[in-house]
Amino acid sequence: MSPYLMPQFLNSTSKDSSDVSILSEPPSTDLPTYLNSTNLSLTYNTSAHFTIHYTDSGTNVVFNASDRINGVPRYVVELGNLFEYTWTTEVENYGFKGPLDGDITNDLKNRLHVYIRNIDTTLGSTYPFAINTSTGKGLANISHTFIEIENDFDGFVGSREGLMNVTTAHEFFGADLLKLG
């Protein structure tokens, strides 16, 4: 969550759902409007926990999109593997609860969604996807989170591989913390 939104969200005493409308889950698509407009038309499901949204053309094209593993850009597969490794480390080995709620009946299918796009100003971000306004206010009422991650890590200091490792671990931990409240 952005440094601007987090304090406002945490310190709010209102239980009016209109106060959190900017963070609310869209009713029909389960995709944040601004991400929906980035034309991330392709998806890759990792073995267990993640759906990665990406494109192989245009402004948000993933790094080296023509280098593929079974038809999927290597960059996307490697990010997926890193996120699964992070899940294993943080949830299974360290005992964190994990950011998913077990609900497979909604459009999210109990998967953490990752959006690869040309962010340029940051390596990645984690946001609340939906807030359960029927139970009140606060981080404990977040029903889902989603992660945005840089499409190529160009222009940042460090190796692409190192930045991918650090960013996946950092953003996953953020998703876990947002869900746990």
Commentary on this structure:
The protein is α/β, with parallel strands linked by helices. The chain has a single domain, classed as Glutaredoxin. 29% of the residues lie in helices and 20% in strands. The strands form two sheets. It has a five-stranded mixed sheet, with helices on one face. A two-stranded antiparallel ribbon has the order 3-4. It is globular and about 35 Å long. The protein starts with a helix and ends with a helix.
Give the beta-strand count.
7
Give a quick account of the main beta sheet: strands, pairing sense, barrel closure.
5 strands, mixed
Order of helices and strands: HHEEEEHEEEH
Low-confidence stretches: 1-31, 137-141
The helix-and-strand class reads alpha/beta
Indicate the multimeric state: single chain
User: CATH fold name, please?
Assistant: Glutaredoxin
Q: Taking strands numbered 1, 2, ... along the chain, how are they ordered across the largest sheet?
A: 1-2-5-7-6
CATH architecture: 3-Layer(aba) Sandwich
